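STRUCTURE:
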């Protein structure tokens, strides 16, 4: 087991002072299988009224509005979380059983539908068909799809953007974790496997000593359904372990962005982000 402290600092700098802004943050981990949240807090640089609720997908959302002029909006989320390994033990579920369950579950139906971000091209659909045809088991097929996508794609910053689609990233065979997750979702859903996008954090250095703060990152991985929800990190070709911290999930990135909002009174803004992760034990 590990105890991690995550400090996620993000926000916007405006070209001219914004007269008002309305925002929502999804930066709070919550307790679930494999992790226990000891503390979580959100600091906002400007005076703001705020509220908290759980969205449709169960993600904790902090909403806040700033109604005084401000040239910068800074949001700092600090969380302390106990995590433990969550190994993928084999789960046997056949295709007929999965197909029979989907019509009786809104969640499974929604997680089977493609979005603009995950819609596959013909090559992705062919990959889904081939890998499904080679296996009788849903879980084994899903793992094979994630491994195939992760092995085929190169992690590279600056090639794609927040609005990039799975088709664009797959054609280039490059992208960041968001892109690799979107491609994996597109192929999984094309194979008939309900799957969802997970937003969270990743400690990048397993060998980092206790107490040493390192530059971390917001991270994305996926979960598929094979009788139960199963997590996997296709970017790192790794099971979800004690270095992963879950924040929320949805159909794609647009359901769980860490921070988004609208503002008035300025012609433009620039976003900044930093994440610091410290292993406390």
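SEQUENCE:
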């Amino acid at each position: 087991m590990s105890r991690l402290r995550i400090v996620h600092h993000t926000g916007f700098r405006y070209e001219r002072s914004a007269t008002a802004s309305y925002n929502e943050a999804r930066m709070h981990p919550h307790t679930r299988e494999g992790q226990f949240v000891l503390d979580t807090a959100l600091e906002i640089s400007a005076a703001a009224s705020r509220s908290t609720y759980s969205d449709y997908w169960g993600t904790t959302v902090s909403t806040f509005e700033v109604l005084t002029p401000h040239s910068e909006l800074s949001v700092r989320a600090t969380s302390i979380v106990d995590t433990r390994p969550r190994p993928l033990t084999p789960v046997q579920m056949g295709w007929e059983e999965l197909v029979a369950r989907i019509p009786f579950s809104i969640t499974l139906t929604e997680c089977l539908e493609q979005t603009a971000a995950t819609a596959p091209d013909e090559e992705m659909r062919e990959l889904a068909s081939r890998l499904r045809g080679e296996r009788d088991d849903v879980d084994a097929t899903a793992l094979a799809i994630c491994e195939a996508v992760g092995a085929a794609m190169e992690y590279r910053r600056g090639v794609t953007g927040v609005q990039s689609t799975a088709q664009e990233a797959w054609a280039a065979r490059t992208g960041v974790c968001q892109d690799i997750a979107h491609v994996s979702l597109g192929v999984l859903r094309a194979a008939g496997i309900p799957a969802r996008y997970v937003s969270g954090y990743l400690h990048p250095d397993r060998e980092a000593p206790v107490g040493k703060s390192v530059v971390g990152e917001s991270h994305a991985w996926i979960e598929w359904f094979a009788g139960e929800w199963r997590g996997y990190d296709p970017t790192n070709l790794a099971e979800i372990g004690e270095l992963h911290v879950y924040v929320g999930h949805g159909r794609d990135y647009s359901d769980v962005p860490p921070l988004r909002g609208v503002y008035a009174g300025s012609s433009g803004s620039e976003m900044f982000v930093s994440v610091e992760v410290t292993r406390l034990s």
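REMARK: The chain has a mean pLDDT of 94.
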